[in-house]
Amino acid sequence: MSEFQGQPIADISLPKDTTVKELVNQMYDSGGFTAKKVGIAAKVFENMLSQKDCVKFLSFPACIISTGTRGIIRDLIKNRMVDVIITTCGTLDHDIARTKKDYYHGEFIADDAELHQKGINRLGNIFIPNESYGIILEEIMQPVLDELWDTGKTKWSPKELEWEFGKRLDDDNSIVYWAQKNEIPIFVPGIMDGAFGSQLWMFYQKHKDFTIDVFSDEQELSDIVFTAEKTGALMVGGGISKHHTIWWNQFRDGLDYVVYITTAQEFDGSLSGAKINEAISWGKVKEDATHVTVEGDATIILPLIYGAVLGK
After folding, report:
1. 144/148 Cα distance (integer angstroms)
2. Beta strand 155-156 pairing with 211-212
3. End-to-end CA, the chain
4. Which residue among 43, 78, 242, 284 is the active-site one?
5. Which tens digit of pLDDT belongs to each residue from 49-99?
């Protein structure tokens, strides 16, 4: 029998001066489980970035914006590595709130009743005091909404509102700040599902002509998709942000490049657990697309991919 021909498994070796790029390349060469998938993801993302005619989508849920991984998302936007952002309302909540107040290290194992009595909200192992969330958002948002109302304009798309807030955020750590500065649209299809949306509703109670024009965002999103030569997506987590990304791309016969990071399982049939190849059957990803699904925590995986692409 002839000797099997293939790429041999290579052991990982980390000298003191190893860069993230070198580490991720070794993870690919190691051939092991999720390590190799991280290496593949870095290659797919790097290839996607090199395609000048490719519109790059970035989708993610709000939870990681409560963590330091917000900095990776910020830098992807700051460095113009993505063209379109699709996310959830909580992203606006956490990003805007953190421009004024701190979030804190906590524990997954905690007395949640005691935390509630102390006015502390737990997001995984992040502790968020009331004054760092709903209270500060009201203090920030209502004066800005009053200012926008005084312009005489009563109908606003979510993207327009987000950019207006970005212009007024004096904090270059902010995602919303850099999105408006670089004119990268943020689309939030579930705009009412969070504190940002609740503040809009509160403003509406005294300004009944105030209107959120969601159709405008959808029209702009459709124009981006229908005019794109190629599209690619870096999708972190599932839910509405993932679905809205692949949903719109089905109308141009699917995404050309996809990196999907998830902790969800596919046995329950959920969208979040569905691997990228399932989307091929729906026409949301092209049959010949370059894609990978990486199972694991995005707070670990995303910094590795970003660091590898930067070569740092």
Report:
1. 6
2. parallel
3. 44
4. 284
5. 999 999 999 999 999 999 999 999 999 999 999 999 999 999 999 999 999
Question: Residue 174 — very low, low, confident or very high, per pLDDT cuts 50/70/90?
Answer: very high
Alpha helices (H) in the chain, listed in sequence order: 20-30, 33-50, 70-78, 89-97, 112-117, 134-149, 158-168, 175-181, 195-204, 214-227, 239-249, 276-281, 298-310
| Catalytic (active site) residue 37 | no
Question: pTM higher than 0.85, yes or no?
Answer: yes
What's the token pair of residue 9? Answer: 């498994």
Cβ atoms of 179 and 187 within 8 Å: the answer is: no
Rounded to the nearest 5 degrees, what angle is found at the Cα of 311, between the Cα atoms of 310 and 312? 90
Separation CA 34–CA 42 (nearest Å): 12
User: Judging by beta carbons within 10 Å of its beta carbon (0-12, 13-18, 19+), is residue 170 exposed, middle or buried?
Assistant: exposed
Using DSSP's 3-state secondary structure scheme, residue 235 falls into: strand
